[in-house]
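Possible regression after last week's pipeline update?

I re-ran a chain I had predicted before the update to compare outputs. Posting the input and the new output here so someone can diff against the archived version. Not blocking, just want to make sure nothing changed silently.
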Amino acid sequence: MGPVSVHEVIRQLPHISIVRDRSRAMAMLDAIMSPDWESRYYSFNCRWSPTEEMASMRDGSGNEYSIVFSSAGAYARGFDHESPMSPYRIDPPEPWPGLFDSMPEAFRPYVTEPAFSDQAATPLATVCFWREHGDDEWRTGAIQSLPKGIRDDGSAEWLFDVLLDGRPEAYQEFAEEYYEVAADLEAIRSIYALRPLTQSIVSALDSEADLASLEEDLAEIGYPISCWE
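New output (post-update):
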């Protein structure tokens, strides 16, 4: 079976602006659910560079993704450390054949970006896709099929599953499993709609959380805030 899951991912992904808004909402929710940044699953930095924003996921077990939003469009890479397409499948490690084929020049620097590579400059990627602002769809490289008898576990899909789903209920299910606490669905819906954050919404998700303590996270994520309650 070939590595088809990336094609399923890009088929389901909406427009860049919607992906960005979902990413900001998921990061804001995680900031409330997990005051400790190191324990968060989803993050968003609207000031990753003077001209770029970045959404990210890391599960604490070596799996992660990054989506860079720039004037050129959006570039995404994911890394499943157990994937048969891992660069570490061979020694010395190298990316899976075709993973970065046909990539626009505007996105090429991200392939060797230190934040997305190991100490030997090996790109940490088992899936990669992109979309320029003028495109009508997301694109990926001409990925070489897996050898006969080796199966892809659909890692591209599960890495991006909550983002792809897009429903507040999907985040609620994730949060209750990952953080092992109840997550108020109406509060999640409010944040998915990017409504200004209030203390009442924060308290519905974490009774001990204080809106004032989220000031840095709000600024980093670029999330709207209402007047103090």
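Follow-up from reviewer: compared with the archived run. The radius of gyration is 18 Å. Marking as no regression found.
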